[in-house]
Specification:
Structural class: alpha+beta
Strand order of the largest sheet: 1-2-6-7-5-4-3
Distance between the termini: 27 Å
Number of domains: 3
Largest sheet: 7 strands, antiparallel
Radius of gyration: 23 Å
Strand content: 5-15%
Length: 490
Amino acid sequence: MKEQLRSIRMKRMLQRLRAFGTAFGADLKIPSSLATRSSSILRYPPLLLIALAGFAHGEEFTSPNRLTEQCRILPSMPGVTLSKGDQAKEKELCGIDFYGGIVALCPKTWSTSAAVMVYDIKGSGLAPETYENQRCATREGHERLAKFKMTMNQRNTSGTMSSSALMYYVLSRYLDTLVEVPVAVYRTLDKEVLDKRVAAHASGQGSMNRSAWEWVRTAVRNPSTYIPTDDLFTADRKQIYGVLLDDKGARYGTEINGPRKAAWGAPQSREFQATPAFTALRSDATLASAIADAPYPAQQMVFWMRELSEIAVLDHIFSQQDRVGNIDYVWRWYWVDADGKVQHDKVHSKVPRSRMNSLTVPDELRQFHPVLLQRTWIGDNDAGLSRRYANFSAQTGMVSNLRHFDAGVYRRLMALSHDFQQRGPVSNFLAGEYGLKPAQLELMMKNTIDVARMLEANCRSGKLRFDLNPMKFLKGEPTEESVDCSGAGV
């Protein structure tokens, strides 16, 4: 399987390399030694191949050191049509110019991982250098545009893989999840700029964050100290590559993330499954009975159950090791209009659930009697897609214990599993378009097949109810559907 994946990747990437040359008026000759040896092309950093494959979608910027930085939009998986909002966000992210005089780059010094916070400083009246020197030390009070995350897997760091954040975005759109995953694009950054404008001023608040920034400073000055070097640097070793995204929301409290009193890892993941919404997901009862005694409104519980079931699936597929404590929310008003359609409106507030009564219904919505609900975001998705990471969703049986699920997500998941088992067009597409290492693609495919088999087994045994349709629930319609356990009907 590994050699087959290598061969597929090689052929697709050679096609992209030739197309890349043609697009810029060059007849790019691929040496016969390269064309016949997958190991040669695979020397390139995996995400660098994304830049070559997707050159027609994105932007380029010139750093002060005359290096050409790239922002690249990933192609969607077969059968996926992105929303206008996603497409606009991709273009917005790739339109951010670090050198236009209105953007500041600041180190993320809180939490455990290193990242670059990208702020809009148009209204500050300050030049980027002044802003970065005077204001980067504070976490609050910024006009945030995006966050740049790079891979970091070295001693005493928390562990991050930039390709994981990219693939969460890609797969969430394929599965058409309700849980919100931020749009992500590939981005490179001049290592000297990263060092001077960001890393030199980074003094982490915690030991893992400090260690990560120490590794960044050491690596940008001597790339060979970071192993494997290709995980962090472009082929010329002059730029760092990673993912640019804009994750939104405020951190949930115990209602979703749990009390977090247990030890990190599997104990916290089991504690997480004891929260009201996850407890309902594990219930053999009907949906109505499963949520009857919950301490939260029924509409909220159904949304949470749907979103948590999707988180369990995505985290299992990508071997996520850092989910608990990294689940966020945004507030929205929901109502059913005169035509019987569910509508919603954003609420620009991050107040916790304990203060939700401070949010009043807008005058223009009063006639619809809307309900205020928290919608779930997972923006911190980079601790996945590596065999080195602990798959706590798998270890604690999150998917195998699900008793409620969505019919549409199930069918799409089963179709993906069938494709992976047959080495079909989707698996070929993934092998050639996203620059994943063979081991990463193998991991994703194996875990997807495992998840599908567990859910199918629960379906065939009659344990799995397909009733998590929050939109129907809001309209007062029956939510449970009959589903062919094989996944037919996609």
